[in-house]
Amino acid sequence: MGLRDLLFGSKDTSSPDEYKDLTLKDYELSENPALLIKVATVTGLRESQIVKDQVYDGNIVIVDITRLKMDKINYERVMKDFYQVARDVDGDIVGLGDQQYVIITPKNVKISRDRIGGGA
Q1: Which of 2, 50, 86, 105 is the right S-S partner for 109, CB 3.0 to 4.6 Å?
Q2: Rounded Cα–Cα distance for residues 48 and 76 (Å)
Q3: Could you tell me which of 50, 80, 77, 76 has the C-alpha nearest to residue 63?
Q4: Model-level pTM?
Q5: What average pLDDT does the segment 32-36 reach?
Q6: According to DSSP H, which parts of 1-120 are helical?
Q7: Smallest Cα–Cα separation from 89: which of 54, 39, 55?
Q8: Left, alpha or beta for 8 (phi > 0: left; psi -120 to 50: alpha)?
Q9: What is the side-by-side strand order in the sheet with 37-41?
Q10: 85: how many CB neighbours lie within 10 A of its CB?
């Protein structure tokens, strides 16, 4: 590689039809990320405690509540717990996808209610 290549870049000889395999390992974050996004399915109070613990630990949790909604009493209890944990950690909570999912965030993470794209 010459000085010209360093300054102006080398000429790319690949065609648009070619592709390059990328390994995800090259793009992985460190072993100890600041926070994680976890996904959970909740069908009752037992699973809700695990979700709450994750939020208290500082993680964002996306919760599938589809099956939970079949039991109105448990649904109301669990949702009350989720709202309480979001309030306790000064986080945020929002329903998503016709209320099939709930996203709960820890402190210093707020969820925008503004939609990006897709029309009004």
Answers
A1: 105
A2: 12
A3: 50
A4: 0.71
A5: 82
A6: 3-8, 45-56, 72-88
A7: 55
A8: alpha
A9: 37-41, 60-64, 101-105, 92-96
A10: 22
Q: What is the pLDDT of residue 118?
A: 74
The DSSP output letter for 26 is: G
Distance CA 46, CA 40 (A): 12
DSSP code string of 47-79: HHHHHHHHHHTT-EEEEE-TTGGGSHHHHHHHH
Tens digits of residue pLDDT in 9-19: 666 566 666 76
- What are the tokens at 53? 């613990």
pLDDT of residue 5: 63
Say whether pLDDT at 23 is over 80.
Answer: no
118: DSSP letter: S
From residue 114, give the alpha-carbon distance in Å to each of 1, 87, 93, 117. Answer: 49, 21, 14, 10
What is the enclosing helix (H) or strand (E) of 94? strand 92-96
Whether the CB-CB separation of 40 and 63 falls below 8 Å is answered with: yes
